[in-house]
Amino acid sequence: MWLKKDDLVFHNDDDIRADLGRKLVKALNRPDYFGYSLKLVTEHDHMDEASPAAIGTLAYIAYETRRLFDEMNTKGQKFHPLEVTSLVEPEDFVRLKGKPEALSHCSGQVFDIDYSALPPAELECLRFVLNDLGWEGYLGFVEEGKDNLHIGCSPGSRDFFTSVFEESVGKKLADQVVGDEGPGVR
């Protein structure tokens, strides 16, 4: 996942709490609107946060997956919001899990999606979106365990996905010029 050592900054819960609103933002749990739902399995506070780029990446993937699924008009299958199982996690918690790849969650730049409950057509759409964005270099993703994807955008795409986040929550920045550049699913 294109992370640098400087990205891994959240060593404990206090680091996460202290950073809310600067590097981290709260992921809004509105499945009908955003196309994803938070199914976080943790006893820690503030684990429903990530970088604006990570939340923007998630929103973009969910939007494009839903759009493609709706266009397929598959009879008997209903869209299920993507289940997000992990966002930011402190390093001390991740080390207890014993999975070195999970350390990337200490950055707030990655998230995990459980796709076990997705209907077949929606899973096909999700894979198409991820493959398209990955092929173009906008994000990386890996299978992590059974029915789980670990996803993060590239450093060069963080500004674009941050703008997706800002647009999705209705923020407009006066000094931001929105161009036609950025990933697009064909």
Can you tell me about this structure?
With 186 residues, this protein is α+β, with helices and mostly antiparallel strands. It has a single domain, classed as 2-Layer Sandwich (Muramoyl-pentapeptide Carboxypeptidase, domain 2). Helix content is 35%, strand content 15%. It is built from six helices and seven strands. Strand 6 (139-143) and strand 7 form a beta hairpin. Helix 3 (52-72) packs across helix 5 (120-135) and helix 3 (52-72) packs across helix 6 (158-168). It is globular, with a radius of gyration of 16 Å. It starts with 12 loop residues before the first helix and ends in an 18-residue tail after the last helix. Mean pLDDT is 78; it is low at 172-181.
List strands and helices in order, with pairings.
Layout: H1 13-19, E1 25-26, H2 31-34, E2 36-38, E3 49-50, H3 52-72, E4 82-86, H4 91-97, E5 110-114, H5 120-135, E6 139-143, E7 148-153, H6 158-168
